[in-house]
Amino acid sequence: MCGFCGYIGKTDINRMENPIHGMMDKIAHRGPDAYGSYIDDDMALGHRLLSIIGIDGGEQPLYNEDRTLILVFNGEIYNYRGLRERLIECGHIFVTQTDSECLLHLYEEYGCDMFTHLRGMFAFAIYDTVNKLLFAARDFFGIKPFIMDSLAVPSCLGPR
C-alpha cells in the first residue's frame, strides 16, 4: 500500500521534533515495514513502506546520484522496464531495480513532461533542491490517493 506525506514552508522546529514525524505516524498503517524522511529549511517529505516483494533498494525517500532530487512514491509503474532501458541508453545510471528510480531519471531527462511517459497507478512528489521546485502527480484515473491543498492536476511548483 505505502504512503507519503509532506509540507512546504519554513520552519524553526528542530529536525528531530519536526511535524513530519507525526504525519508519518498517522499513516503508519499504510507502511509498517520501513520509513524515511527528508527535511531541509524549505521542505519536509516522509514515506512509509509496505513491503510486498522485498524492500531492497525500495527505501524512500529515494535520491538521484548527486542527491539534488528527492522522491516519495506510492504505486506501480507498469512500463518501467522499457523506460529504464531507454534512460540507460540516454546515459542515466541506475543503482536499484525499482520502478521508483525510473521516476527520478525521467524527471532529469524530461522535467515536468515526464508525466506523459508513465503508465501505471501512482502518486508521487519529486523535490528539486537546486531549483526549489516540487513536482507532484498522480495517475490519470486517480487510483492512488493524493491530496495537496488546491492542487488538482500535475504541476511544477516553485518560487513565484
Explain what you see:
Residues 149-155 have low confidence and may be disordered. The radius of gyration is 15 Å and the shape is globular. The N and C termini lie far apart (35 Å). The chain is an alpha+beta fold and 160 residues long. The chain has helices at residues 19-26, 80-89, 99-110; strands spanning 3-8, 34-39, 43-49, 62-63, 69-77, 120-128, 133-138, 155-157. A five-stranded antiparallel sheet has the order 4-5-6-7-8, covered by helices on one side. A three-stranded antiparallel sheet has the order 1-3-2, with helices on one face.
Give a quick rundown of the structure:
The protein is α+β, with helices and mostly antiparallel strands. It is built from three helices and eight strands.
Topology record:
Layout: E1 3-8, H1 19-26, E2 34-39, E3 43-49, E4 62-63, E5 69-77, H2 80-89, H3 99-110, E6 120-128, E7 133-138, E8 155-157
Antiparallel strand pairs: 1-3, 2-3, 4-5, 5-6, 6-7, 7-8
Helix pairs in contact: 2-3
Helix percentage? 10-25%
Largest sheet, spatial ordering of strands: 4-5-6-7-8
| Low-confidence runs of at least 5 consecutive residues | 149-155
CATH topology label: Glutamine Phosphoribosylpyrophosphate, subunit 1, domain 1
CATH architecture: 4-Layer Sandwich
List keywords for this structure.
single chain; 160 residues; alpha+beta; Glutamine Phosphoribosylpyrophosphate, subunit 1, domain 1; 3-stranded antiparallel sheet; 8 strands
